[in-house]
Amino acid sequence: MLTQERYQSILSIINEKNAVTVSQLAEMLEISESTVRRDLTALDELGKLKKVFGGATSITKREGVYEDNVSMREKLMSEEKTEIARYSAKLINNTDFVFIDAGTTTSRLIDFIDNDKATYVTNGIVHARKLVQKGLNAYLVGGKVKSATEATVGAEAIANLKNFNFSKAFLGANGIDINAGFTTPEIEEAKLKEAAVNTSYMTFILADRTKFRRVFSVTFSQLKKCCIITDSLPDSSYSKETVIKEVMK
User: Fold this and answer.
1) Cα 234 from Cα 216, distance rounded (Å)
2) Which pLDDT value is given to residue 206?
3) Which of 103, 167, 220, 239 fits a disulfide with 194 by CB distance 3.0 to 4.6 angstroms?
4) pLDDT for 44 beyond 80
5) Is residue 60's pLDDT more than 90?
6) Mean pLDDT for the stretch of residues 93-102
7) 53 Cβ contact partners less than 8 Å away, ≥ 6 residues apart
């Protein structure tokens, strides 16, 4: 196996397991422990992982303010998002007053909603149209329109949300990290998500496994305030922080 192939294999294993020992890597890759140690040292120096005594751990990705547009994100983890959305729709009861955040996974949630007795509020322009087309009782939060996510944000939108008392909220997140919590790249959108969390009795974060161990610019909630619905959990330590449902385990 070539050096670069070993590096890629090691990173793939560590990112999946979060932490791994030298002996485990040696057995999985069928190489010597001395070779593993040299590779771990090199990858640590490149900033790709964190070398620790007896092995290595993954590192949290700091993403900054970059965010893909809606059409790009819609294509990623498509099957996983569908299963997350399908499960989430079953959580809506007749008497619920529901907030649905703008986002690609929350948009799919609407595809599976069949409860026409609940009331829905959203800041997603596409979401509002889909809710109305299904004949559901829906309200669109007014405010500044953010083109990248096709969402309303800003002071007016936040003021509107603060007047509501939601029984359930379904939100998206760009990053999930044990220390940083739930994060997103943009300040105005983060403030609106924060308001939704604070005005909801129960908040569910709909996020596929690629969102874990990623940190974006702004935290909108700590993990303990929200439940997470995901396809599969890449790191069991998150289960110690909040309630998590894996829909494809």
Assistant:
1) 18
2) 98
3) 220
4) yes
5) no
6) 97
7) none
In the chain, domain spans: 3-59, 63-246
CB-count burial class (<10 Å; 0-12, 13-18, 19+) for 211: buried
Given pLDDT bands bounded at 50, 70 and 90, which one contains residue 112?
very high
SS3 sequence of the chain: CCHHHHHHHHHHHHHHHCEEEHHHHHHHHCCCHHHHHHHHHHHHHCCCCEEECCEEECCCEEEECCCCCHHHHHCCCHHHHHHHHHHHHCCCCCCCEEEECCCHHHHHHHHHCCCCCCEEEECEHHHHHHHHHCCCEEEECCCEEECCCCEEECHHHHHHHCCCCEEEEEECCCEEECCCEEEECCHHHHHHHHHHHHCEEEEEEECCHHHECEEECEEEECHHHCEEEECCCCCHHHHHCCCEEECCC
Would you say the CATH fold of 63-246 matches that of 3-59?
no
Please, what CATH class does the domain formed by 63-246 belong to?
alpha beta
Decide if 169 contacts 204 (C-beta within 8 A).
yes
Residue 184's CB is within 10 A of a number of other CB atoms, namely 27
For residue range 5-40, list pLDDT tens digits in order: 899 889 888 877 767 899 999 999 999 999 999 999
User: Please, is 203 exposed, middle or buried when counting C-beta atoms within 10 Å of its C-beta (0-12, 13-18, 19+)?
Assistant: buried
Mean per-residue pLDDT, 174-188: 93
Reference 118, options 140, 141, 99, 104; nearest CA is 99
